[in-house]
Each structure stands twice: as structure tokens, then as C-alpha cells.
Amino acid sequence: MADLTVGLVGTGRMGTALGERILAAGHPLTVYNRTPDRTKSLVDAGARAVGSPAEVAGAARLVLSVVNDDAAVDAVYTGPDGLLRGAATGTVFVEASTVRTSTITALAARVRAAGAGLVDAPMAGPPAAARAGRLLVMVGGDLADVDTARPVLETYARRIVHCGPSGSGTTMKLVLMAPMAVYFAGLAEGLAIGGQLGLDRAMMLDVILDSHGAPPVLRDRAELLLGAERPPGFEVSGVRKDLRAIMATAQDAGVPASTAAAALGQYAGATINGFGDRDLVFIVDYVRRLAQGKTDHLD
Predict the structure, then answer these.
(1) Whether the predicted pLDDT of 3 surpasses 80
(2) Structural domains of the chain sorted by starting position, each given as residue range(s) with its CATH number in brackets
(3) What is the distance between the alpha carbons of residues 261 and 259, in angstroms, rounded to a whole number?
(4) Residue 123, φ and ψ in degrees, nearest 5
(5) pLDDT of amino acid 2
(6) Which pLDDT tens digit goes with each residue over 68-81?
(7) Would you call 137 exposed, middle or buried from its count of C-beta atoms within 10 A (0-12, 13-18, 19+)?
(8) Which letter, b or e, does each residue of 99-132 get, where b requires 16 or more Cβ atoms within 10 Å of its Cβ?
């Protein structure tokens, strides 16, 4: 299905990486971004840029959306020039943003009323993994819609897991994110305790990485805490956003989420104090600054 017409709304770092893979697979691609300049690299690679989400929906059989948060999802689909304004009967939308489960289930009803289908398909992995075709993609939706979306998802996924009906992929992403966010907040506090009592950071990380308690996500990032430099894989502000979605969804499900709430406080403080655009592992440096009594904004 190399001739499947595809639309993409949201050409930030992740959206651009996905678009590159979709184009490389031979799918005609129409793109939109609220800031038009951010579509340039994909246009240079062969995509066509348009002026609204509605125009994207009118040009594509399958439309992928990768935006920042719940409010952006709502605006992209239901705004005056939103996707549902341009959707034809049989269009399949793939919502890849990490948002509240309730946002997806409410959206699915509106999409169905428009004669279209919705697959929620959030991803695990950074833009570099997308460019390598190595994302883990968790999907929810009707099997027929998932099958329509599969040729595009396969351009950037190493594994696609159909978790159940609409909202299930999003729920699984929140299930995945909760312990990761909490882990790094706990790691930050542990390393701060050790640092305050004279332990060397490199030594502490060496011991942690040699234990059964070190997750792969720390192994991927530990070098950043020792001075290595590379673009952030997932920003502190993104973790804060996801924890908000986790907290809201936990409340909807009647689940106490005290550890997630505590972690949210750490990531929110770090974002406010200048760490928002840094990789999530730098929550460690934020907590160390607090332990050292440094409460000024990070320059």
C-alpha cells in the first residue's frame, strides 16, 4: 500500500521524524503545522504543505496527528478548520499524542459520527528511534481501522500492540509512563542524598547500573549525567504533561496515585525553574540544586 495517501498534523521533532519515515516508504504526504516554517524539512523531502487541518483531511485517506496536549487535540479535530471539517466517509485518523484516555474516548464518538474511524496510537521512544523505525506503538480502535493504519505505523514501529478498543492504546501509554516518571524522580532523590553525604555521582551510577534495579531507560541516559551531550530524547516538560494525563485518568478510574502526584510536583518545579527543555534525566540536577539550597531559576 505504498500509494496510501497520508496526512500529518504536527511537525515538531517527533512528527518530522515520523514524516520522514512515511515519505521514505513511498506514501504521498500532506502536512500541516500551526507554525508553517516547521514543515519546511518535510516539504523539501517531498511532502505538500497546506494551510489547515481540514485541508489535510481532505487530501488523505489516513491522517496522523502528533500534537502537544489534550487542548491541542481538541482544537485540531473540532476547531473551525479542524480535521472533522474536511473528513470524508471512511477516513481513518491516527491520534499519536499522549493525552488523557477520556480525551480519546470522547473524540472517538465524534469521529464515528462523522463517518470516519479513529485509532489511538501513542509511541514509546525518542525521535531518533522513530528515524530508525524502532518505536513501540500501542494502539486502540476497531481492528479494521487498525489494519488500515498498519502500513503507515509499520514505517516507524518495531512493534505494534493492539491493546483493545478506542482509548486502550492511550491507557497503555499512561501505564508505561507512570513508573518511568516516578523512577527518575526517585533516582533524583536518591542521588541527591548520596551527593549531600559525600558520594561521587559516577560511582553511584556505576553501582546502580550494575544492579538488577537499573531500567534500560537509565542505561540509555546515564552518560548524560556524567557530561555527555546529545539532543533530549524526552523533555522534563513532556513528563510533566504526561503525569497530568496520568493523574486525571487515575482519578477517572478511581485509582489513588500518590506517587505520581509527588513526581508531578518534582517535574512541575523543574519545568518552572528552567529545566523544561532538558532531557528528563536532568530531574536529577534539579533535585540536587534543591538539596544544595539553590532555588534560583536555571540560566
Answers:
(1) no
(2) 6-165 (3.40.50.720), 172-291 (1.10.1040.10)
(3) 5
(4) -125, 155
(5) 54
(6) 999 999 999 999 99
(7) buried
(8) bbbbbbbebbeebeebebbbbbbbbbbbbebbbe
